[in-house]
Design goal:
Layout (H helix, E strand, L loop, with lengths): L3 E3 L2 E10 L2 E6 L2 E7 L1 H4 L23 E6 L4 E7 L5 E5 L11 E6 L3 E7 L7 H14 L2 E7 L9 H17 L3 E3 L8 H8 L3 E5 L6 H7 L25 E5 L5 E4 L45 H7 L5 H13 L1
Parallel strand pairs: 4-6, 9-10, 9-12, 10-11, 12-14
Antiparallel strand pairs: 1-2, 2-3, 2-5, 2-13, 3-4, 5-6, 7-8, 13-14
Length: about 325
């Protein structure tokens, strides 16, 4: 873990966040911390891109911080160091009069592991597209992990026929896709390899098997495991807070509570196409150049690439949907 003395303070890494309390790893020991008053008064920025390096849009797991010790295992976080990376979403507004802002989920990560199940529940592909757009915007790598592949025979035939070409499209774009089963062990060695030595953020909706997957790696300490509500078909929450878990052989994963919503933050409509890797080669080649929105315009190179089979129609429709919401 990151550690360094700074005058009368110590540097460490936040490994757990629970409401306003934090655990910070310093010199390989865990210090229970709270925020100094000055940090508490910093409000989330309405645009994190105004100051990405030092944005106090919410101190979170993975952040490197300065800590003033006030006891053998207690401290106060006095400063946040500049971030190398940050992955966030549009915060869900608890009250109608609250202003929109970014919720930083994790900081200083190397990659995002987007976890989806092949069945029970079926994968919401448009949500995966939003995850990937957020990764492209944050400049962090993304890995797609499909769980419960042993249940694929329980899918209806149409779902099976749809799943394979969709995953092939993601591979063609350049995203690694790992098929896993905790029950059979399929894909777990490949997953361990891709996580080794990296700080990885694990995201996905409740019920997709994140906790079972982390328990199978194994990650330190073990995590709670839940299942899918048989009435609603939705997952039950099992992880209730952000926590960094060390991996055997090096590296760590940041486990997250299941996210029912994931809104993109601060991506302008005219920037969106560049967040789709398969569209980049065609940008600027349309009849109307960079002003083309790739919808109904004549001479659009992106639309022609869709018709020629070089861009997935499903991904293109997802782009149009996201652009409409931008």
């Amino acid at each position: 873990m990151f550690h360094q003395h700074y005058e009368n303070e110590l540097l460490g890494v936040i490994t757990k966040k629970l409401n306003s309390a934090f655990e910070v790893s310093i010199d390989y020991r865990i210090i229970q911390c709270r925020l100094a008053g000055g940090l508490k008064r910093n409000k989330p920025k309405q645009s994190a891109k105004q100051d990405k390096d030092a944005s106090l849009t919410g101190i979170t797991v993975g952040d490197e911080v300065r800590v003033r010790l006030i006891g053998s295992n207690e401290g106060v976080i006095t400063a946040l160091l500049p971030r190398r990376s940050g992955f966030g979403r549009r915060a869900a507004l608890s009250m109608p009069d609250k202003y929109p802002h970014e919720q930083i989920i994790a900081a200083n990560i190397d990659q995002v592991l987007a976890v989806f199940s092949v069945a029970q529940p079926d994968p919401p592909w448009n949500l995966l597209d939003r995850y990937l757009v957020a990764c492209e915007d944050a400049g962090v790598s993304a890995v797609i992990c499909m769980t419960k592949v042993d249940l694929i025979e329980h899918q209806n035939p149409q779902s099976v026929q749809e799943t394979t070409p969709i995953l092939d499209d993601f591979r063609r774009i350049g995203y690694p896709v790992i098929l896993t089963s905790v029950r059979t062990g399929e894909g777990l060695d490949e997953l361990r390899s891709i996580l080794s030595g990296q700080l990885s953020l694990v995201i996905g909706k409740s019920g997709v098997g994140k906790s079972s997957l982390l328990n199978a790696l194994p990650a330190g300490g073990g995590v709670r495991v839940g299942d899918v509500n048989p009435i609603t078909g939705k997952g039950r929450h099992t992880t209730t807070h952000l926590e960094m878990l060390p991996l055997e052989g090096g590296g760590a994963v940041i486990d997250t509570p299941g996210m029912r919503e994931f809104g993109l933050w601060d991506i302008a409509a005219d920037e969106l196409a560049a967040r789709f890797p398969e569209m980049r080669d065609f940008l600027g080649k349309c009849k109307f150049g960079l002003s083309c929105v790739h919808d109904e315009e004549p001479g659009c190179a992106v639309r022609k690439a869709v018709m020629d089979g070089r861009i997935s129609p499903r991904r293109y429709r997802s782009y149009l949907r996201l652009r409409g919401a931008a």
